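User: Second chain of the day. Same drill as before.
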Amino acid sequence: MGENPFAADTVGINVYAIRYLCTVIGEMLAGIGGAYLSVVYRSAFQPGMTTSLGWIAVALTTFALWSPLRAILGAALFEGLRALEFRLQPIGISSNILATLPYLFTILVLTIETRRTVKRMIGAPSSLGVPYVRGEVKYCNGIGV
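Assistant: Same format as last time:
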């Protein structure tokens, strides 16, 4: 569907319904994540509780390269760095320095992955973010989209 929605439409798949369904499911998962964050993780809503976590999500998406296994491993790695903050504080390392570890690693991952992806395609669907209009064929990099 993401590579060529025109081809999916020609075999009878409703492209609009699939795209809306995926959007609704994605938003439901985001809502569940927000509910988990405010009910379980912090046990109370606090303004600014997601501050800067969006950049970690962007880095995780880049790190995953469209692979669910890499996304799971990356999420465990990023959260492990956040948990490391609480393990190393009793040793005497400053909590401010430890709090920056996930963000420093985020910058490192984005830098490395950007260089790697410049050399080779990251495997994202060619129609990602391109609106689909039935009967209209668009071309992106020589491929009908």
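The longest helix spans residues 15-41.

User: Great, on to the next one.
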